[in-house]
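Working notes for the structural subgroup meeting. M.R. asked for a predicted model of this chain before we commit to crystallization trials. I am recording the input and output together here so anyone reviewing the notebook later can reproduce the run.

Input as submitted:
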Amino acid sequence: MRFPARRLRRLRKSEGMRRLMNETLITREDLVYPILVQEGLDGRLPVGPMEGIYRISVDLLEDELGEAHDLGIRAVMLSGIPEHKDEVGTSAYAKDGIAQQAVAKARSCRSDMVIMADACLCQYTSTGHCGIYKDGTVDNDLSIPLLGKVAASLARAGVDVVSPSSMMDGQVTAVRAALDREGHQNVAIMAQSAKHMSALYSPFREAAHCTPQFEDRIEYQVPYTNPREAMAEVESDIEEGVDIIMIKPAMMYLDLVSEARRRFTTPVAAYNVSGEYALVRAAHSKGHIDGAKATMEILSCIKRAGADIIITYSAKEAAKMLP
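Returned structure, recorded in token form:
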């Protein structure tokens, strides 16, 4: 059937009709809100280019969680920013580490929320790398046992989901084994399976003081030019027993989100990272775009591409706009 018999605008003629025909419905339950918790901080500090985003002290976490919960957000991703850094990232798996404190606090005050935590070493190492730097490289096999220790320590604090993000080969195997050894079989793993070498992490790295002190992370993060390699990383994590896979960043990687959704039955998360958030806020502040409309468009397109879970600094903003 062709025009004039076929008029597609009929299906867009009213708000009610447009809602009826909507193919991609984003909900508050799709969203995970990242929270940065800083050790030794009294109060909150703004994160430079990320308008509305703050590093907070542990004592403010209850209020932050309460605000998110009141908006209908039911999951958060906690990242710790420590005072102490060393070559092997001991603060990452210390019993009283900042991430462990944050998880325990969140668990105690919000049993009705899903508590996720980043399980990496870059914020905690003096080198700023995601593992043990030795002989001019990050040593994969020395690093993965430490990732297991990080995950186990977070599980003891009460986390629901650990998110290993170091991009070490075998990290899911190491994390699953460490969790199971301590009886944490029900703690899920959401691996940052295809974490790309991207310029879009800069605001987070600045806030968390985890920019590499030398070299970069190209030896272990996925080149943004290599989609087959990204899918190989995802497939490897699935074979190792991951519960949720992740594509990171999200906005410019929707082809990979879609491909992961098409190829695998494992739930797919996408991380709308700090630089993506900052780009929208900067353009909005200069009057180039409507930030609210752009935010909803971006999140809807991530969902449309196939993401089951969207980790985004815009979660609270989006939750306020959703019906």
